[in-house]
Amino acid sequence: MIIVTTRVHFWLLQIVALTFLTGCAARQEAPEVPQAPVELPEAFTQTGMPAVSDRWWRAFDDPQLDQLVTRALEGNLNLQASFQRLRQARAIAQRQGASMFPSLDATAGAQRQESDTVSSDTFSAGLNASYELDLWGRVQSLTEAEELRASATLSDYQAAAVSLSGEVASAWFQLVEQRAQYALAQSQLETNQNVLKVIESRFAMGQGGSADVLRQRQLVSVSRERLTSIETEILVLEHQLAVLLGKSPGRTDVPTSDSLPQLPALPDTGVPSTLIQRRPDLQQAWRIVRAADQDLAAAISNRFPRVSIEASASSQADSAGDLFDDWLATLAGNLIVPLVDGGERRAEVRRSEALLDEQVQAYGQAVLTAIREVEDSLVREQQQRRRLDSLEDRIRLADTTYRQLRNQYLNGAVSYLEVLTALQDKQDLQRTILTTRQQLLTTRVGLYRALAGPIATKESQDNRHTETAENTDS
Asked: Which of 8, 24, 54, 234 could form a disulfide with 333 if both were Cys (CB 3.0 to 4.6 A apart)?
């Protein structure tokens, strides 16, 4: 025997139809996602020929740098934490998406009652199902909002990978420069010691003054002190690289190169509109805007009635064998019509509108910042190229000047102070050239970071394959 109880009446169906039409109209009137409120330039001020690869650091043709970045993408703890945030966001999106489908619960129970004369058993089983009719897209909007936030979290993870690769490259070039500075400082110390021997010999023969010896000894002392300072900086940079790789400082192998690579050719900067579609951080900002738009649509839809359907089937018997002979089935339709809420829902719509406008402005600012980063890198690189050319001209002149003054000093034509000044100028220029070359490479790293698209990491690929398999099984 099956008993069916229904609470959906004709007047209820009329209200549902009316509110459905009203809700659809409200859904159509929901504002579209606006574009970024900025005017984009047609092109960047400079461009080159090679396209920017996703693994942009390989443009430096430095196998050790490639090894370090690969190790960092696999072991950096901050990046792994960002990946776990991505997994959380995807799980939240799946949880919200489940509300678009009916829910079904099963119940079962057994009870035994005993008295002085009588004992009885009661067995029960049942199924309960519920489903909200998403007549005007509230549930759909909330689901799409969470999916967009999950996509934004993916973009944030990809942006973190780009940022990490840039940090590793910059730290590596600084470390290589400091090692080159150390080798240069050793060479300069040896030169200064040799010059000191010459001056001391001349002083012993009465051909020079004690002040010349003291000045040169001071220069030797400064050279030794510089070596100590550089050693400290090398250790600090090695520790920094170790942490970026996800290792304890002092307990990881760092390559021992002390030769800076050549600057690659200027890459193809493309156009700003392409940059917006490629950069992960801009994709993240845009998806947050779209998620805010879906939240607004949900807030508007929430002001209209909700219709849900509930169904249940239950059976109860004195023995387990008779449990499924008789069923009681219930089908219910529920209508919730918001009447008075003190303006709560209207206020939520206004809040969602303001939040959408905020995210639009933040997206526009992110676009402007991205374009500025490209242009700043181009300007800095151009200036540093010019400076490096000037420094190389100056070092040739300084070397020639030092050699001529040194010969003149040995012939007694000039004072040692002029020789010392020329020697210090030459050594200062040698150190400055190394620093400028490193700064030029670091500036190029900034340009690649500003132009780079998402980096495919092993963890994101493995996770995507795992989720695909889980979705297939379910």
From this structure: 8
Report whether pLDDT(259) > 70. yes
H/E element, 311: strand 306-317
Residue 113 lies in a domain: no
Question: What's the DSSP call for residue 120?
Answer: E
Assigned domain for 452 exists: yes
Q: What is the pLDDT of residues 270-296, one digit of tens each?
A: 999 889 889 999 999 999 999 999 999
310, with CB counted inside 10 A (0-12, 13-18, 19+), is: middle
Contact 244, 169 (CB under 8 A): no
Which residue type, as a one-letter code, is found at position 105?
A: D
| Residue 14 pLDDT > 70 | no
Question: Could you give the 3-state DSSP secondary structure of residue 298?
Answer: helix
* Helix, coil or strand: residue 105: strand
Q: Is 121 helix (H, G, I), strand (E, B) or coil?
A: strand
Enumerate residues 6+ apart whose C-beta is below 8 A from 107: 124, 125, 126, 127, 128, 314
The whole-angstrom separation of Cα 107 and Cα 126 is: 5
What whole-number distance in Å separates Cα of residue 372 and Cα of residue 450? 9
What pLDDT sits at residue 31?
44
CA atoms 171, 172, 175, 180: torsion sign: negative
SS3 456: coil
Here the CATH number for the domain that contains residue 18 is: 1.20.1600.10
Q: What's the total number of domains in the chain?
A: 1
